[in-house]
Task: inverse folding
């Protein structure tokens, strides 16, 4: 009787784990795939969809996986291989959690009254800002309105499918909103975040702007942007967060997580 209860309890736990894996995997599969139809597709989409599929398959075949592991764990070779797999998996989970935690911690605004702002560019559709860039522009506008002594370096070159530079797009919209053009500096040569920061620093130094800076970017991007700023010699870097949507978060957080790891390795 006691063995039967123990067996039923283990079976119940396994079924609950299976359901959790299938439901979570299906939810995140939707969250990673759905934005593709809104023209959001990057390495985060691919990795996220793959991990979601693995979670779903693990949920479906969990019983067979447990049986396989039990069988091979009894052999010396199987035990060694499985221990290595479990160790690597555990380390991966820890690294993932620590990296995500640091990104979430850096995703919040902590700027106060910094007078020099670097606004990081994003995609332009023709001459119109993408939805992400529009939120960054609006965030910069709100900060500059609240801090009338501040100036901004608008950073972003011209990419494929863009009729104007990202910096020019930001300049046009901010001046239309009433920001004095004299408060805006254009950096129009960069192609990525590293160049954004490096070229913006040149403009800051050339024009004797304050080096106590605040960076405007999307919440998921701020950790990596801050790391790059510090690499470029900015000692006191503050953040101004442009909030991302629920559908953007999984894909872009996962994509930028790879960038954060890369910056950590090559620092």
Result:
């Amino acid at each position: 009787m006691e063995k039967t209860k123990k067996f039923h309890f283990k079976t119940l736990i396994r079924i609950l784990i299976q359901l959790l894996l299938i439901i979570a995997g299906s939810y995140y599969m939707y969250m990673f795939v759905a934005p593709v139809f809104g023209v959001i597709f990057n390495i985060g989409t691919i990795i996220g969809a793959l991990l979601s599929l693995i979670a779903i398959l693990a949920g479906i075949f969990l019983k067979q996986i447990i049986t396989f592991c039990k069988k091979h764990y009894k052999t010396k070779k199987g035990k060694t291989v499985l221990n290595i797999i479990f160790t690597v998996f555990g380390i991966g989970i820890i690294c993932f959690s620590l990296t995500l935690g640091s990104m979430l911690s850096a995703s919040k605004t902590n700027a106060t009254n910094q007078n020099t702002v670097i606004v990081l560019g994003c995609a332009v559709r023709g001459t119109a800002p993408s939805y992400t860039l529009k939120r960054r522009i609006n965030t910069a506008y709100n900060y500059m309105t609240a801090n009338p002594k501040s100036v901004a370096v608008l950073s972003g070159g011209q990419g494929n499918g863009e009729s104007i530079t990202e910096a020019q797009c930001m300049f046009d919209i901010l001046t239309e909103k009433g920001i004095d053009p004299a408060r805006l500096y254009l950096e129009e040569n960069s192609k990525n975040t590293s160049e954004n920061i490096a070229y913006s620093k040149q403009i800051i130094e050339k024009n004797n702007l304050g080096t106590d800076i605040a960076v405007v970017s999307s919440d998921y991007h701020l950790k990596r942007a801050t790391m790059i700023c510090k690499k470029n010699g900015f000692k006191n870097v503050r953040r101004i967060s442009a909030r991302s949507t629920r559908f953007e978060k999984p894909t872009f957080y996962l994509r930028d997580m790879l960038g954060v790891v890369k910056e950590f390795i090559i620092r």
